[in-house]
């Protein structure tokens, strides 16, 4: 987010929004959300305001299922 904000100010080559979402999707959602508000970047885009927290929520749910899901019961039996 910081690099894209700097490039936006200098009117340089921008990082595509799809790339920013991909980075969030593969594990950078917390950093993306923090970067959005720290650098005040993409905070007016509804897709980012809603999308980044949704990605984070899905990642948390997946982590909880992996940690506490039915896989643990099958392995311990």
Which helices and strands occur, and which strands form pairs?
Elements: H1 2-9, H2 17-38, H3 46-68, H4 70-76
Helix pairs in contact: 2-3
How would you sum up this structure in a few lines?
By secondary structure, this protein is mainly α. It has helices at 2-9, 17-38, 46-68, 70-76.
Please provide a written account of the structure:
With 77 residues, this protein is an all-alpha fold. It is 78% helix and 0% strand. The protein has 4 helices and no strands. The protein has helices at 2-9, 17-38, 46-68, 70-76. α2 (17-38) packs across α3. The longest helix is centred in the last third of the chain and has 23 residues, at 46-68. It is elongated, with a radius of gyration of 16 Å. The model has no long low-confidence stretch (mean pLDDT 89).
Q: Roughly how many Å is the radius of gyration?
A: 16 Å
Low-confidence stretches: none
Q: Could you give a short account of the major beta sheet? A: none
What oligomeric arrangement do these chains adopt? single chain
**Averaged pLDDT:** 89
**Distance N terminus to C terminus?**
46 Å
DSSP strand content: under 5%
State the helicity in percent bands.
Answer: over 70%
The gross shape turns out to be elongated
Give the total of beta strands: 0
Q: How many alpha or pi helices?
A: 4
- The structural class is mainly alpha
Q: Could you spell the SSE succession in H and E letters? A: HHHH
């Amino acid at each position: 987010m910081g690099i894209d904000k700097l490039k936006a100010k200098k009117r340089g080559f921008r990082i595509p929004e799809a790339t920013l979402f991909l980075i969030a999707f593969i594990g950078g959602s917390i950093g993306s959300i923090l970067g959005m508000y720290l650098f005040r970047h993409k905070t007016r885009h509804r897709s980012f305001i809603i999308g980044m927290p949704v990605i984070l929520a899905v990642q948390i749910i997946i982590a909880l299922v992996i940690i506490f899901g039915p896989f643990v019961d099958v392995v311990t039996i």
